[in-house]
Specification:
Blueprint (H helix, E strand, L loop, with lengths): L13 E4 L2 E4 L13 H19 L4 E2 L2 E2 L1 E4 L4 E4 L2 E3 L4 H22 L2 H6 L1 H17 L2 H9 L4 H26 L5 H10 L4 H21 L1 H7 L2 H4 L10 E4 L1 H4 L43 H4 L20 H12 L7 E4 L1 H4 L9 H22 L4 E7 L6 E2 L5 E11 L5 E8 L4 E4 L3 E4 L4 E10 L7 E10 L4 E10 L5
Helix pairs in contact: 1-4, 2-15, 4-6, 4-8, 6-8
């Protein structure tokens, strides 16, 4: 991070009272509503992400909730697939993929996660939208907060709090619905028969949503989120970040709408310095008219013209606001834009570079590994334990028997009729029962005895116990050993 982009966030006002320094309360941020291509993209992301959160629990596939983390039953149902505690390594892979994705996209374009997909950002946008609908636009909200308390002000504030709390409680209810079947949770909460933990977590996550998105808002991003502190480790001079073009915009100042731009529009001749509008000190002005639109729309209340700051969440609201002002002034867009440090210094763009290539390669490998692991999951867990009392026993006519206890777990959502067999070149045959029907999720221990004719096995031999479905498909397998008398 260069000196030009060094964080220069808003400083708290300090008052000196009788020799003691006191930090004044940080002023409330009133972000102005803005329209533009990036804001429309963020709105689409909000609808998509909240749609998944609020709709998925109500969708069922084959009678099973689309996404359900059934902790008491130790089963996770995700898009028609059932995962068990034995599949915990898949969760580890997902977490690694999420971390690598964050590193990769941050190295490419900064804090895209924060600006478009972070839950704090998404829910804050919804709470701000409700606040605008009830209290009005930015100026109306500022005026309302400064006005003395009246019946009308109390009604607006009470209505906003009611809507916020209702939405927060619905969010907490939906969150718990990912762990308790939501179609059962709703009636249980309404009838008062829900469990204590279900009620607690509904209220807890409702309160967390209300506090983070309604009250704290930008304070979470500025002071509580650790990502802002270590993001610079993933940045370099070729990372796309929201930047103010100092060379084009400075010195800033007000001017008439008809004043020529410093940067001419495409296809037109450059504007001579002598034709530029002048500031109070007689210096030719840049393209920034110092309208503060970029500051007014910022959800964290920073001035992007002071350089890249850790408070910036890359929401691009300042880009949309500045482009709208440039359009009104008939100036070219891009005074504030997604760009790189090197481009601002006149150097070429480098998207493919060692950092991004390494991230992309490792991320691709983990994604492929995760897909293969899910596709290759065995529907039945097989654990084979040999009889510890004797390595083998000799029965009639000198035949050799080995005993095993085969533990089976049905990981599917339906019943499975299975049988056991030994995969080996040895002349082994199963003695007694080797078939069983497993209910969904059932854990069953099936005794298995394998016999070999006299003289056909000597010493220790490797075998594999296979679980075979009714159609002959191998559903699971586990290695083991078969012991016979040592050859003399």
């Amino acid at each position: 991070m260069t000196a030009r982009q060094r964080p220069q966030g808003r400083q708290l006002d300090i008052k000196v009272v009788e020799g003691n320094s006191l930090y004044a309360k940080e002023p409330k941020v009133y972000p102005r509503e803005v329209d533009g291509r990036f804001q429309r993209l963020r709105t689409a992301a909000v609808f998509w992400l909240l749609g998944m959160f609020y709709v998925f629990p109500w969708i069922s596939i084959g009678g099973q909730q689309l996404v359900l983390f059934d902790l008491p039953a130790r089963r996770f149902h995700v898009f028609g697939l059932t995962f068990w505690p034995q599949d915990f390594y898949l969760l580890t892979l997902l977490l690694v993929i999420a971390a690598l994705s964050l590193f990769f996209f941050t190295s490419l374009a900064g804090r895209l996660w924060c600006g478009y997909a972070c839950p704090q950002t998404v829910w804050t946008e919804v709470f701000l939208w409700m606040e605008r609908k009830i209290e009005g636009d930015r100026n109306a909200r500022m005026k309302l907060d400064k006005a003395p308390w009246t019946a009308a002000k109390f009604a607006r504030k009470a209505a906003k709090q009611f809507v916020w709390i209702a939405f927060a409680l619905w969010t907490g209810f939906t969150f718990v619905g990912f762990f308790t079947p939501i179609r059962e949770l709703g009636p249980a909460l309404l009838s008062g028969t829900a469990g204590g933990w279900e009620i607690f977590w509904t209220l807890f996550y409702g309160f967390a949503t209300y506090g983070n998105a309604g009250i704290l808002r930008e304070q979470v991003c500025k002071y509580m989120c650790p990502y802002a502190r270590f993001q610079s480790a993933m940045f370099d001079r070729d990372t796309l970040v929201i930047s103010y073009d100092v060379a084009r915009g400075e010195p800033r100042g007000h001017r008439k709408r008809s004043a020529p731009a410093l940067v001419a529009a495409a296809g037109s001749a450059s504007v001579a310095v002598a034709d530029r509008p002048l500031g109070k000190d007689g210096t030719p002005l840049g393209d920034c008219i110092d309208c503060l639109a970029c500051v007014q729309v910022c959800p964290t209340g920073i001035d992007i013209r002071n350089g890249l700051q850790i408070e910036c969440i890359a929401c691009a609201a300042c880009i949309d606001a500045c482009d709208a002002v440039m359009d009104k002034m008939n100036y070219p867009r891009g005074l504030i834009r997604y760009t790189t440090e090197n481009v601002l210094e006149g150097k070429p763009v480098r998207v493919l570079r060692p950092r991004t290539l390494v991230y992309a390669g490792v991320l691709t490998a983990f994604i492929l590994g995760f897909v293969w692991s899910v596709a290759a999951r065995a529907p039945v867990i097989v654990e084979v334990l040999r009889d510890r009392n004797a390595m083998y026993r000799t029965v009639s006519h000198g035949a050799i028997e080995n005993s095993y206890n085969v533990k089976l777990v049905n990981k599917t959502d339906g019943d499975l009729a299975v049988s056991l067999r030994a995969k080996t070149d040895l002349p082994l045959r199963a003695i007694g029962r080797s078939e069983v029907t497993l209910a969904s999720g059932e854990v069953f221990s099936l005794p298995l005895t394998l016999r070999a004719d006299a003289g056909s096995v000597s010493g220790r031999e490797k075998i594999t116990i296979e679980v075979v479905g009714s159609d002959g498909t191998v559903l699971g397998a586990s290695p083991s050993l078969f012991y016979g008398p040592d050859s003399k």
